[in-house]
Q: What sequence folds into this?
């Protein structure tokens, strides 16, 4: 799905509905992708294995679309912007999130990384553009931070006995921060999603694939497991989720669209139970629940509903 539909051709209501549906689709895709990464690490795939599958798979999938454009790149895709976006969603992001999965549990990943995305995507417009956060979004972010703290207090045994779980949590803080930066930049620059993701994936593959083939030792996995991870990394995480999410940003703006990654925790935790047999503990469930509640409080639609209910009862005379 492309995000190239001109905003002027759509009513605000239609843009809102489309943006919310796209945001929900991105969150669901990310939830499955996160579970896939956890499965991949358990199957012995390294950060380098998963990273090259992500960008090579996405590049192969989106290259035909770029070729149909006859090599044309929009004026918004300048070299400095391309480099900055490549940092935000390129190898640094892949290294941090894949490394974190090799250390910390799934429940930490799906709360900390999306939570940081929401926080950064909402704070950057305040810092650089002079935007003002609505009161309900401030409250929602504060509640979300409380959920992150609850998750951080839960420190189960690390997947790597030589490294503390906290190191994995810090990796997720870094990956979520980079995603928040990507959310802000795409919303500010209004760059076509498929063009941006395709270009970054192809260039990253051209640079990193020779290094991987020379310096890395591929995982001793079956062909089926490699194909499975190619789907999770290249198709879901590297292509569909990002393109759909960028389309949501185009319709909702970076602040509101930046809330949807926070839906990933409850989705991933619930899907992981039947999908991968991963059961969260009580503390993890508490953190996920608090984070999800923070998201609900942050949504503009929730605040509008509260206003309508209170206005209708005649008990509220000031906007939230």
A:
């Amino acid at each position: 799905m492309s995000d190239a539909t001109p905003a002027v051709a759509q009513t605000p209501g239609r843009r809102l509905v489309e943006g919310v549906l796209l945001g929900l689709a991105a969150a669901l895709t990310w939830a499955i992708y996160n579970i896939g990464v956890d499965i991949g690490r358990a199957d012995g795939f390294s950060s380098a294995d998963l990273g090259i599958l992500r960008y090579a798979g996405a590049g192969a999938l989106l290259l035909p679309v770029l070729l149909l454009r006859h090599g044309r790149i929009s004026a918004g895709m300048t070299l400095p912007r391309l480099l900055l976006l490549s940092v935000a969603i390129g190898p640094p992001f892949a290294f941090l999130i894949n490394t974190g999965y090799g250390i910390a549990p799934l429940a930490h990943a799906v709360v900390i990384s999306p939570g940081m995305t929401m926080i950064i995507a909402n704070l950057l417009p305040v810092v650089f553009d002079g935007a003002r956060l609505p009161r309900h979004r401030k409250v929602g972010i504060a509640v979300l931070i409380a959920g992150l703290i609850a998750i951080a207090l839960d420190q189960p045994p690390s997947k790597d006995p030589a490294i503390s779980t906290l190191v994995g949590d810090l990796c997720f803080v870094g990956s979520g921060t980079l995603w928040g930066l990507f959310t802000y930049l795409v919303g500010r620059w209004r760059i076509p999603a498929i063009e941006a993701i395709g270009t970054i994936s192809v260039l990253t593959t051209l640079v990193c694939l020779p290094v991987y083939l020379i310096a890395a030792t591929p995982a001793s996995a079956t062909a089926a497991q490699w194909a499975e991870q190619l789907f999770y990394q290249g198709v879901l995480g590297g292509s569909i989720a990002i393109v759909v999410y960028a389309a949501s940003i185009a319709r909702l703006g970076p602040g509101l669209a930046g809330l949807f990654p926070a839906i990933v925790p409850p989705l991933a935790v619930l899907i992981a139970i039947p999908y991968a047999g991963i059961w969260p503990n009580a503390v993890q469930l508490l953190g996920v629940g608090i984070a999800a509640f923070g998201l609900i409080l942050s949504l503009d639609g929730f605040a509008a509903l509260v206003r309508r209910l209170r206005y209708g009862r005649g008990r509220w005379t000031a906007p939230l």
Summary: The longest helix spans residues 12-42.
